[in-house]
Fold each of these.
Amino acid sequence: MKKLSLISLGILASISLMNAQTISSKKWADLFSYNNVLVMKEDNGRIIAATENGIFYYTAATGEITKLSKASGLHEVKISAFDYNPQTKTGLIGYQNGSLDVITPDGITYVVDIPIATGYNGSKKINHISISGDKAVISVGYGVSIFDLKKKEFGDSAFFLNGVYEASNEATIVGNKVFSVTNSGLKSHEMNVTFPVYSTWTTEMTGTFTQIDSDPVLSFSSPTTAYIYNNGVSTPLSQTFTSVKDIVVSSNNIVVTDKNRIYTFNTNGNYTSTVSFGEECNTAAIIGGKAYGGTVVSGIKDESNSIYKPDGPYFNYAYKINLFSDNQMLVSSGGRSNRFNPPLDNPKNPGFYYFNGMEWIYPSYFTGGNAVFNVLDAIANPADNSEVFFTNYVIANGHGIYRMKYNASKKDFDFVKYYDLGSPSIYDYRPVGFTFDDQNNLFATVSFGANTNAVVAPYDRAGDKFLIKETGVSIATQKPLFYEGLLWIPLPRTNNFMAYDYKNTPTNLSDDVSYVLNQSNGFSANSNGTVSVAIDKSGDAWIGTDSGLRILPNAATAIKTPTSAVVEPIVIEQNGLGEELFRDSQILQIEVDAGDHKWVSVDGGGVYYLSSDGQRTIKHFTKENSPLPTNSVTDIKVDRKTGKVYFVSYDGIVTYQGDVADVTSNFGNVLVYPNPVVYSNFKGKVTIKGLAEKTNIRITDAAGNVVHSAVARGGYYEWDLNNLKGKRVASGIYFVLMTNEDGSDKATAKIAVVN
């Protein structure tokens, strides 16, 4: 196999990984945005659209829309290029990290030659892909590479190196010749033995050119002028453009996308029509005699302003999620770097996304005007789900708390009130997160109060204002957690953790007490702050810091005597030696499921699913082995009714159908899977779900002999199909006999084993 080399003249070859991972399953789903259509291709009346995090297919005749993402077969997110050959039914996806997915009727092949190749340290983002027959020319920061779609391997590469590397913005194949547009000109070369030698390339025309396409004619453009190229002659098209986003050449038309206006020319270069979609487009095409625009924020749009796309949030940026009644959710889209400040650069300036149980809603409040938003939290009033509060953490005028009201008839939010927290400057009193207590009292945490104190701000509904309580502790805060009459608040900028006791009188600040833990209580000496917290069924506080994990046993009692409280690491045995779990790792989020298992997000390390005591890792999801879009998951929420787990990140949201839901002292709907267990198809453990919180299990063969026994905790159990002697059981039918802890409830199941 020929491998791509990113050393000029092919001195060093890299390693190709293909079919290296199968990372999706029916348990995963995506909540990605499909609004930003980057490329559109036609396949016999079907439009194939590439968006930031996935592909979707729209069939005009039936209106059917289907999607393909990392949750259903792709290997990456952040798509940057795409092309499709309808004759061979082959698609090629390019990603920002330089990897490729080859999509054929036989499956999806993952190719990572470019990301892992050495010798070139610039951007490896795939800028553009153009397929011609069984070959594709791929534009990258170093120049162009030829990719063989049948062999799924790279051929020759041309490095545009003249002192420094010059990127190929786009390229296309005409016959046996490659044409590439760069910032210095239109360049060309036959695909022959001298193709990799940059000095042998011809500059057909100097200038800064960004777009190119061909078949049956060659057309290319600068940001303001489009050309037809024929036999060495470049003829400008009759229109002058503002900012050309794309050129698409088909058998009958040349379509130029100029922001929100689409210009059509025949293949002789004669102007024929203009269509405006009323918003910015990345691309456009004439399909079935009808103009379609690939928009930035509305999916595919046709001339009558009908919109076609899978439902999803407005953008992929996401930071925190709040689940509430009837399958509704609010997603905040802000963010922070270095745990606290400054806000992440988020040029699209989103607010929050709302799912009403049926469809995603994006408030029009965030789509107009000059206000700047960095929404770190959005929460619905439990007593009135239509009332939503959100925090704006931005360093600019307008930071504070906002209240909005959902208008179901308009499917939009009406602005109600802005709460200025008395900020003396744009740097002070920036709100972070919310929680409601068990009496529906609302509290906000606020960073950078007077004297740079962390602030607790209870909402005085009678006075319709937020009160300010300077805590005298730390500088920055995190989203609070309510438990046992206390607000549990990580402090990300100092080596402290706080529990705030408001004495069940939220609007009376005079008797409030702050209990603070610090390094003397057992936090790591190299910690610079606490980041996350969760309380488990035993009442223990799991506290995530930027340098590891700590447990405060019997937290509600222990925290009130902070001079004697001790936070403890989890120590696990590795090769006979004790080792601290997650030592020196930043713990972004901790979530406890209905079975008291712990989901833990580690910055850069993916998500761990731990046993209730943390001693055993049940699952470890990363972006390499699962549909997670990144290894830094900023929030995790579990729907305890269904067991579904939501993973939130700056690169989008995915869900995983967990095995634990509604765990009680009695049995639920007991399910065994896979069943039957056929060794040739499955070599893992058999899962038994729907169990009681504590379940006594005996597994017998058809003759009644006990082959396995166990005690399961947390609502499910995994059997490795081994008998009491540690050997795999023989083929046959096995009976699972189960009782709950006190024997008041029983359940049975059968497992068929085929070796």
Amino acid sequence: MAGNLLLTSPLEACSFIRPKELAAMQAAGMAAVRDLLFMLPRRYEDRRMFDRYDSLSSGAPVCLRGRVVDVGWKGWGGKGGKGRGRYVEAVLEDEQSLGNARFSCLWFSMPGIARMLCAGQEMIVYGRMKPYGKKLSMVHPDFELIREGEDNSIHLNRIVPVYSGRMGIPVRRLREIVWEALEQLSPEPEPEIYEFVPGVPCKTALRDLHFPGSAEARDKTRRRFALEECLAQQLNVAYRRRRAEAVPGMQTAGSSLLVRDLAASLPFELTEAQKRCVREIYRDMKAPRSMNRLLQGDVGSGKTLVALCAMLLAVEHGYSAVMMAPTQILAEQHYLKFRQMLDKLDVPVSLVTAERKEESHISFGGQGGIVVGTHALLYGKNVPERLGLVVIDEQHKFGVNQREKLIAREERPDVLVMTATPIPRTLTLTFYGDLDVSILDGMPGGRGKVVTAIRTAKDREKVVKFVRDQLEEGRQIYVVSPLIDGEESRKGKAVTKELDEWKALLPHVDVGLLHGRMPAEEKEAVMKDFRDNRTSVLVSTTVVEVGVDVPNATVMIINNAENFGLSQLHQLRGRIGRGAYKSYCILMTEAQPGDEQWEKLHIVETTSNGFDLAEQDLKLRGPGDVLGTSQSGLKGVRFEEWLLDVRLIHRGRELAEAILTEDPDLKSAKYRPLRFLLESGEMKRVAN
């Protein structure tokens, strides 16, 4: 029966929650009823019809109902479960299967299980059947005991939610608490909660979220909440875009003579895609409003050259331009490349990092100039006067607040953000919806073909021979491993050990070492030796993932390739094939054909287009891992399906635009509850 609880009611108002349970919930960060009701099930079990033991599909998780016919300690060692080989085994009889099939459930190092179970009890178990000894068993399954006469309870004969047990409250008890909260939720609307998604009201939908009548009802409800989350995010994006468009900007470009001079000095011609992107940027910079543009393209598509053209447009018009890179190595590389390319154009270039500052050109006077730097540029004294253009390389490596700190000034500069990681369309619409987008969909000519192949430990000798052949031809080699040394808990090869192995394998070759713990000056020296071909083999962590450009390097060996995401593997592969030579990416793995990890690597082996790989990566790993939750604002997202659905995003954008058209600053009583979304700029539920 409906009660007086509101979504905003404190958990203390729930008399059905016991003191110890309340303390556990509060320790987990729960404060109000809405926190409890938006604690999503990690999965559902359809307890209207259980799986049968005699119809199991190999390897798939199953939900079985059975009666305990025997339980006790098994194995060897001391009594009471103290021996290393001792485990608790419960033998269950599946009465629904042909011949009343029996199966075992095993628990290791969990002596309390033996005290909980006894013959005659009915249980529901969930897990995977795996061979153990000579029979199939479930090892450490999720389980619930069925109480006598509860066939009509909330725990049986329905689709039931299964929650995480992280708070120490049994799943069964959590189910009862959520059910009671839904029962006592007031049907009256709450003025402090604005229902801005058309359709089923939030409170009605919550029941289907936890106790759906069907899988279809559950999925429909999730889409309803996904649209609500999407709208909240799109509202923030649309508001930022409108606010940026309303700020008077500077005209930071006039003529384009420097760009023409640069193009004429190059030993190659810009691709049509590069020319198109430069024209789009030029139009923005000539307009009397602030440019906010995203430049994205595949690995090696020439984004840095497009950015340099944009900076020259600003310099020619008397403004300074700043490029912020995420690492010392990348900033140093951009700086050296720009110095070389602009040598004859008389354009000053300066470098600013935490380790190194070339102060001579920070003040360019009346003449424009270019400053390349790292996070050190976030401090005002390192930014030149008359700043007309800010270029942010590898945007996803920086937080939104860092970007704002660099560009927030009385005369707002134009902004060009770049990413070398192709972004799936849905995530572009979501997280860069306030930016205009330029896409480099062509590749410069004169590049060698890149061949990718999966190899295992048994192929090691062939790989070493191939490396020797490439070295004899004068080429250079990258060897990338996931770890710095062997002390980390994660499984994988360490660069320190790899260095010793390659030095032993190639005694007459200079082998370099590069990783993130090295001092900046040492990293810079190592990269310079590799660029100048004084080092033939570079053993490194993924610190070389972005921006490193050595045209003579033709082989990229990636150890424990299964540990990396698809996009990261593509980024690493992008360090080769930058010259005219045919190049080879070798994915060393411990996975075996048929494994899920092997299939992932096969996608990289057969797909060269970064945008296609990004879409596959999104499906495999989900948005949080692809973008990085700390930088993308994904921490508050509960219903990730909207991040995979262009239609939901467009619908969320339509609703957001309609709201802001009606009330641009959300000051009316109708929309005032949404204002915190605009002020916080974070992904949160509107009810928060």
Amino acid sequence: MQNIRKYYRFLRSFRDLEEKSAEVIRHHEVPLEWLHKKLRRNQFLTLSGILVGCTAGLAGVLLKALVHFIHLFITQDYHLPYQLLFYLIFPFLGILLTVVIVRFVLKGKDGKGIPKVLSEIAQKSSMVDPRKMYSQIIQGAVTVGLGGSAGLESPIAITGAAIGSNYARTYRLNYKERTLLLAAGAAAGIAAAFDAPIAGVMFAMEVLLAGVVFSDFIPLIIASVCGALLSKIILGDEIILHFRLKQDFNYWNVPFYLALGVLSGLYSRYYMLMANRVDHFFERYRGRVFLRGIIGGAALSLLCFFFPPLFGDGYESIKVLVDQSGASLLTGSLYVNLIQHSWAVLVFVGLICLAKVFATTVTISSGGNGGNFAPSLFAGAFLGYCFAYALSMAGWVELPIANFAIVGMAGAMSGIMYAPLTSIFLIAEATGGYDLFIPLMIVSTTSYLIVRRFSPYSLEVKRLVDKGQVFTRQHDRNLLSLLHTGDIIEKDIRIISPEATLRELVALIKISSRNLFGVVNDAGELEGIIVLDDVKEVMFNTELYDSTHIRQLMKNPPAFIDVQEPMQQVMKKFDETGAWNLPVTNGKKFLGFVSKSSLLNRYRQLLKDYSTSEEEL
């Protein structure tokens, strides 16, 4: 009897499943849409984290593999002078091809860089242009594959962010879930680039989600693990940055690691200042993209000609520096005959360290695509090598040069990217263990604290913070940045000509539900405002109806709001003037009014939507 009941329950469950499947088919729903409705929120987000992580991880693997194969294709066993000619041709070609792709294929509308993603989180409710799911791969492969001195991690992170954002948009997820999956896609991309899942999570939390309050990080972790796993399976250790420690950590070297941290912080500040100057130089050519590309391509080619390790993302040079020696980098360059001179090796490595910022910023600012992630690791490795090599060569102390080069990577990355946790865990995972965890913490935190003394934000992010276009760590400012002036303009305000009479104003008051009127001339420009309370004394005196004109009654508004003005500035104007309504203009053209009450209502609604209860999680 029990077996019969079990069999009956089995048939019943099978029939229920069949009916649900038929319902899905009838309503033309794809499986994930049906699952989205049937699963609990955290279950669906976990599944989404897996799918976004795998997709973003594959995109990262694809970009790394493309650049690797481009390098193999264009790199031959050249001998001098053909090898030097190679450095003059391909970097120049890479910049120009990228400019052509952006100009004619992408129509010049494809932004680049991590700050662009931060701006889209804050300004566009985490909605990323779908074209970035493939455009960054193309640009990054062309730029870096042909010798651009920049990193692939920025294009990979943007691609992953676009994948996560558009996945969320497809299933109509809300802002919090969309932001979470955007960060999950970027984390998976970073994890795939380095086979470092913890570093991917830390990157998302430190860089992308800075100032964003979240308590649900499971999809983020799962996506990062998926990205790293795919990278490990497909790429192995050949393309990924990976090291094996030759010497253990010696606690007697702690003072020297502390000194390296200070040096890394100072170098990071130098890096940011020089990058800013180079970027400002190319700003003058913003309207002439081809001239800018020619100048940048020529400058980059010359830098690669004199310093071949600047060619490409530089990971191979880092491996040579750590696993072999700085002298090995002189092979195939103009300075091959100086290998036997220790001081020449030190000068050569030091000059490369100083020149890296110029090569990277020229690559990015002149029209190439890439980021400062890999260059910061490159510069840190060369800085740490120079520091330890100089002390050892001077005979003051015998230091483990390879270890200092590895730890130097974390120091420079922490200071340049403002991401100490990401740098610590990235290098720890790249070395296959935590033997250098203590020096990594010392150097990274010291470097970070030094650069924070100069500025609370990294240089490229600070420009957007000053404009109110990215999140800060102040929660109220973050919520205000989600509001846009154009979205809360009240356009039901009645307008009247400055040449109109009081009689016309009284007629307008009869049909209006507002106590505020805009005085607008024939050109559509706002000349003043009329407040009902200010005209009560004269509006009942019929003798003045035809002799009194609006120009005599109007007054200037306490302040004007530009439609492009950030919401923090709008709130500041309301606070300073004490007004409850302010006019909005586009140039001189009148658009409507913004009321303080509607702005506060929208702010409270955002605060309510943004605060996720524990029951929802």
